[in-house]
Amino acid sequence: MTSIPSSFDMGPKDADDLEEMSFGQRIVYHCKQQPLVPIGCLLTTGAVVMAAQSIRTGNSRRAQNFFRWRIGFQGATLIALVAGSFLYDNHRKDMKTKEELMREKAKMREKLWIQELERRDEEAKSRRKRAELARQKTKENEEIIKKLEGELKELESKVTPKSK
């Protein structure tokens, strides 16, 4: 099917289309979808940095506590990642894909275009029918005019000899 420009076409493409996003836009998009994952990553990183700083200063007890926090943050991040992926996957399955929406839109446009063509075809047929009726009426009128002209000539020929 060829692509016909139509007034039914919508505006520019959705900004949520991942293929058209830059790397930074994709990161922001995914962070907005699952905000607990980047927060967990930052907390885990902070715990590792604080543990490393405690090791440098020689405070092994404090470093041990930060490593324990790191394990907790890392576990919470993994749980958030798995749960978010599960929820997002179910949500995405429920929503129609962009391709399905485009197919439905194309079918609707095609249906409307066919209806428009049928309407135009009916108009053309009715114009042809009216034109044919007008031609027939004109032909009948011409025949009547010829008949009347013939009668007029007969009457003129009858009237003209008497006046001489």
Automatic annotation (TrEMBL):
Q: Where is it predominantly found?
A: mitochondrion
InterPro entries in alphabetical order: Hypoxia_induced_domain, RCF1
| Annotated compartments | Mitochondrion membrane
**Any one of the GO CC terms:** mitochondrial membrane
* Sequence intervals crossing the membrane: 36-55, 67-88
According to the lineage, what is the superkingdom?
Eukaryota
Q: Which residues form a coiled coil?
A: 98-158
Sorted alphabetically, the keyword list is:
Coiled coil, Membrane, Mitochondrion, Transmembrane, Transmembrane helix
Q: Do you know which Pfam families this protein is assigned to?
A: HIG_1_N
Q: Where does the record place the HIG1 domain? A: 8-99
Q: Which GO terms describe its biological process?
A: mitochondrial respirasome assembly
Put simply, this protein is called Respiratory supercomplex factor 1, mitochondrial
